[in-house]
């Protein structure tokens, strides 16, 4: 009994120290067991918890506008059960865990189910697999409702809510790249990528970090809930495409015709491609629309012919290709 008392006191001291240290939530599993007779048995315990979750995020790599977009899918996994999950194999799902569950959380778009035996020793990757990527250990199961990712690698997820970053898969997406500018609102030029056949990609909604031509551009958001065949992403700004909009005073005027006044406003938009490659650019501008009968507005014939002119909104669009230095 003295030996048992020492073990219990050691456990109490350890737990007390963890509580005093702070920042660590604790949890426990309570089991009720029955047996027809006394026996020695080994138990494997599995459970479902709603104190866990995961969220997808991405790294988008664009080597150049001649190459496809490389989409690296990742997951941020967290759990606050107070029990550290040591070297478990994860299954991530875009739906709620468990086929037989009664409780549901409609607001939790992405949830996490841990089905592995917590005490089971995880297999160490062999030397022969040392150069394998995470795709070699990933099984993706898709149906009309949910997508699940079974990862055949051991991970440790602390029980205090600290997020663990996990690589999921790498996908390639063909894209049509186009630069976009609306200098009346913003003098910067934006690079967009229209992903063709994006409905065939596995893209749950989430934030994405972008790099283009080995430069970090910032963040965007992937909306995987859309139904369009093609998805357009804004990749960031490119200072090598300069756009300038200025009012031409010498070609603007105000004239009186009796009680009528005629005003002419002339603007010049200058675009220069400072890249060493050809680019496609969509340029937009706007002229005012009259809401009064005694005021008429017309677009003068001297205007550079736009690709489209939405007369109801006064939005002009030019789509053109610019050679290097043009």
Task: Outline the secondary-structure elements.
Blueprint: H1 2-21, E1 52-62, E2 69-79, E3 85-93, E4 111-113, E5 138-142, E6 147-157, E7 164-173, E8 175-182, E9 186-195, E10 206-212, E11 215-222, E12 231-237, E13 241-247, E14 253-257, E15 260-264, E16 267-273, E17 279-286, E18 308-310, E19 315-322
Parallel strand pairs: 1-10, 8-17
Antiparallel strand pairs: 1-2, 2-7, 3-4, 3-6, 5-6, 8-9, 9-12, 10-11, 13-16, 14-15, 17-19, 18-19
Helix content: under 10%
What sort of overall outline do the alpha carbons produce when their principal axes are compared?
elongated
**DSSP summary, beta strand count:** 19
Q: Biggest sheet: strands, sense, closure? A: 6 strands, mixed
| Secondary structure category | mainly beta
Taking all Cα atoms into account, the compactness measure Rg is 30 Å
Low-confidence stretches: 99-130
Average pLDDT works out at: 80
Q: How do the SSEs run, as a string of H and E?
A: HEEEEEEEEEEEEEEEEEEE
- How far apart lie the N and C ends? 90 Å
Output the number of helix runs: 1
Q: Order of strands side by side in the largest beta sheet? A: 12-9-8-17-19-18
Beta-strand percentage? 35-45%
Mind explaining what this structure looks like?
With 326 residues, the chain is mainly beta. The chain contains one helix and 19 strands. The strands form five sheets. It has a six-stranded mixed sheet, with no helix packed on it. The chain has a five-stranded mixed sheet with strand order 7-2-1-10-11, with no helix packed on it. The longest helix is centred in the first third of the chain and has 20 residues, at 2-21. The model is unreliable at 99-130 (pLDDT under 50).
């Amino acid at each position: 009994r003295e030996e048992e008392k020492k073990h219990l006191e050691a456990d109490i001291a350890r737990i007390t120290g963890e509580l005093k240290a702070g920042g660590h939530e604790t949890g426990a599993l309570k089991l009720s067991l029955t047996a027809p007779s006394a026996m020695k048995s080994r138990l494997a315990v599995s459970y479902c918890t709603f104190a866990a979750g995961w969220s997808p995020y991405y790294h988008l790599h664009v080597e150049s506008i001649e190459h496809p977009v490389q989409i690296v899918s990742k997951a941020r996994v967290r759990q606050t059960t107070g029990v550290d999950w040591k070297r478990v194999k994860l299954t991530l799902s875009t739906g709620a865990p468990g086929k037989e569950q009664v409780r549901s959380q409609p607001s939790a778009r992405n949830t996490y189910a841990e089905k592995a035996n917590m005490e089971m020793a995880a297999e160490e990757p062999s030397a022969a697999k040392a150069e394998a990527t995470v795709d070699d250990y990933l099984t993706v199961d898709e149906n009309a409702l949910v997508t699940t990712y079974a990862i055949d690698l051991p991970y440790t997820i602390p029980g205090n809510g600290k997020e663990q970053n996990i690589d999921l898969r790498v996908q390639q997406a063909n894209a049509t790249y186009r630069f976009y500018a609306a200098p009346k609102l913003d003098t910067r030029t934006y690079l967009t990528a229209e992903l063709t056949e994006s409905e065939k990609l596995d893209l749950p909604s989430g934030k994405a970090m972008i790099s283009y031509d080995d430069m970090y551009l910032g963040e965007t958001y992937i909306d995987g809930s859309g139904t369009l065949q093609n998805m357009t992403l804004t990749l960031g700004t490119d200072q090598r495409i300069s756009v300038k909009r200025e009012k031409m005073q010498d070609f603007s005027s105000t004239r009186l015709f009796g009680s009528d006044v005629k005003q002419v406003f002339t603007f010049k938009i200058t675009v220069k491609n400072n890249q060493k490659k050809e680019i496609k650019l969509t340029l937009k501008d706007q002229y005012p629309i009259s809401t009064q009968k005694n005021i008429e507005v017309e677009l003068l014939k001297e205007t550079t012919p736009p690709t489209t002119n939405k007369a109801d909104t006064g939005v002009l669009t030019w789509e053109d290709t610019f050679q290097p230095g043009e």
